[in-house]
Amino acid sequence: MLLSLALGTIASVLPKDFKWGTATAAFQVEGAWNVSGRGQCIWDYFQSFPGRIYMNETAHVADDLYHRYPQDIQIMNTLGIPNLRVSISWTRILPTGDVNNVNQAGVDFYNQLFDALLAAGITPWVTLFHWDLPQTYNNFTNQSTWLNPDVANKFNDYADFCFNTFGNKIKHWITMNEIQTFTWIGYGVGTHAPGRCSPSWGSWCAEIGGGGNSSTEPYIAAHNALIAHALAVQTYRNKYQKAQGGKIGMTISSAYAEPWNISEPQDHNAVDVAVAFQYGWFGDPQVFGHYPKEMTDRITGGRLPAFNESMSALLKGSYDFLGLNYYTSSYVHYTGVPGDNFGNDGRFWSSATNATGHLIGPYADSTWLNVYPPGFRKILRWIKNRYNDPHIYVFENGVSCPGESQLPPALALNDTFRMNYVFDHIMEMVDAVLHDKVKVKGYFLWSLLDNFEWTDGFNVRFGITYVDYNNNLTRTIKDSGYMYQNLIQSLGETTGSSENSIGLSERFKNLRTLDE
Ligand code: PNW
């Protein structure tokens, strides 16, 4: 096989039409928060309270992508990355969220951005909702934001507006980014907007006194967001898909899990329960039209809403692909204790260490992220098996390097920790495609740029491009960026037999061994 490599007759490791990209989100990169008529979103409001974001930083300017996108497109071109995932800021185009109040300057901005990308040969993939809900929807009487079922209708109107306005340019739509993250952290833990949680749930909740109910609200908010997704997919299919020829889906974050005690059968069972509580929470409704049995069996007291018949029918099949954001995995341990609160509803707890004290993988710079590449292949297999072999896009995968923000810029560029992370994860994905026959159709690295990392502010970096916040937001490509460029080129080389494909994958494995 190595001989055939040398002769230049190698196969492309992944299918020729495999989509390589990077991912971003409007609130984290755009800045220009009060420029040209943009309305406020719940993150603008949330970050205005002292003590909520690291060092009270704000995303008012962030990476200023709003003004500097030509430079960022140039970076994509330098690295030869053909796809960019961006999100639309709802309140930049509809300042109050309402379709009767259009901000033309915001629409112009996205048209210019999409045109510039397309002119550069880069395909834009668009997320409609990456957590920046209009602040006007934070003020409903009694109910806030996604707790109000009517917000699903507002989202559908907004989605309709986007399909109609940008659908001639955009052929890949992602309705929602990580419903679990924005509902669990926004309504359970309370450290993301809108900052709701039970005062009894933790010291943070008592401190912000935000009001909320961590044992019910995450489920209600997520339920309404799922309905919003289903309505938007229906709208796209009924009014636009045929003429525009695009595809639509959602992306779901999920860790994988390993048994805490390897010789305890219940801990092995807990693995499936844990994944059903994450991926299954949103995967099952899309594929089967209802929540996972693992959840309905365990979430007590009628706290998990049910879909009525028509909504269930609408949800079932509401995807052209399934999306996955994968970062980390943990050990899980069966407790048997029925939960009545969000954190323990699944009757298991999770931990970075197992029964023998072994750490599942090195800590990144984010407290929730331990590096565990095998979990990536395993969750891809889990999705394939549970959902009858769907098309899958990985819309996020990436890492923060320990201590990266404390390094002088010149040293931060040598991001070996990220290089290893990206390389090892892509190899797991290649194995999933070649050996497990999982239909992974694309991979988007999080993220193109260091950016506003929510409550961690600018203190945690996920970019393959360094952004110097002390020096006019200067961008410099990190070593991981160049490695990604090489990987894309190598894995996409020419066509040929699958046997040779595996040969190239093995060649990379050998390279990795030599490096270590
Ligand atoms: C994702 N967790 O968030 C988001 O989609 C991005 O906006 C974000 O910047 C990126 O991952 C890195 O954090 C997550 O606690 C936040 O497991 C938290 C978790 C997972 C994903």
From TrEMBL:
<dbReference type="InterPro" id="IPR017853">
    <property type="entry name" value="GH"/>
</dbReference>
<dbReference type="Pfam" id="PF00232">
    <property type="entry name" value="Glyco_hydro_1"/>
</dbReference>
<keyword id="KW-0378">Hydrolase</keyword>
<comment type="similarity">
    <text>Belongs to the glycosyl hydrolase 1 family.</text>
</comment>
<dbReference type="GO" id="GO:0005975">
    <property type="term" value="P:carbohydrate metabolic process"/>
</dbReference>
<dbReference type="InterPro" id="IPR033132">
    <property type="entry name" value="GH_1_N_CS"/>
</dbReference>
<protein>
    <recommendedName>
        <fullName>Beta-glucosidase</fullName>
    </recommendedName>
</protein>
<dbReference type="InterPro" id="IPR001360">
    <property type="entry name" value="Glyco_hydro_1"/>
</dbReference>
<keyword id="KW-0326">Glycosidase</keyword>
<dbReference type="GO" id="GO:0008422">
    <property type="term" value="F:beta-glucosidase activity"/>
</dbReference>
